[in-house]
Amino acid sequence: MELWKMSQKVSELSDVIPYYFFSLVFSCLSLSTVLVIFSFGTWGGLGLIVFSFYVVIPYLLFAVPVQVLFNNHPKKFSLIYFCLYIFFSLLAVFIYSSVLNFDFGMDVLTTKNYYAISLSAALFFWFWDSVFLQKDSSAS
Questions:
Q1: Cα(119)–Cα(90) distance, rounded to whole angstroms?
Q2: What is the pLDDT of residues 19-36, one digit of tens each?
Q3: Is the pLDDT of residue 115 over 80?
């Protein structure tokens, strides 16, 4: 009996995994496109690939677990979910930029790029999450 329940949960999860993947890929591509545009085209098409690999790690570590939690109570375009994505995005970008720069100083919080990237990352992930995974049509 327990094996049946486990098999059913695995089956349900395998049906949803492609939607998590699409949400992640489109979020990475969207954020990478914005980063390339704001780098004034110095990266070109290669920037989409490079930036996508850089942004997939924080998305996987911070956003996808929150997304899985939110999918338990789905709400399309929920402002509460958006605010929580912003919080985790601010945290993720701070940690990620500190690790990449080998500097755990608080000066990263004074740059407008920190807030622009954090808000953009949250906005894109929230949007694509609402499009692909949040099946309930009620918005809060």
A1: 8
A2: 888 889 999 999 998 888
A3: yes
103: tokens are 């500097």
A 10 A CB-CB count for 44 gives 9
CB 3 within 8 A of CB 26: no
CA angle 103–61–45, rounded 5-degree value: 80
pTM listed for this prediction: 0.79
Q: So what's the pLDDT on residue 81?
A: 92
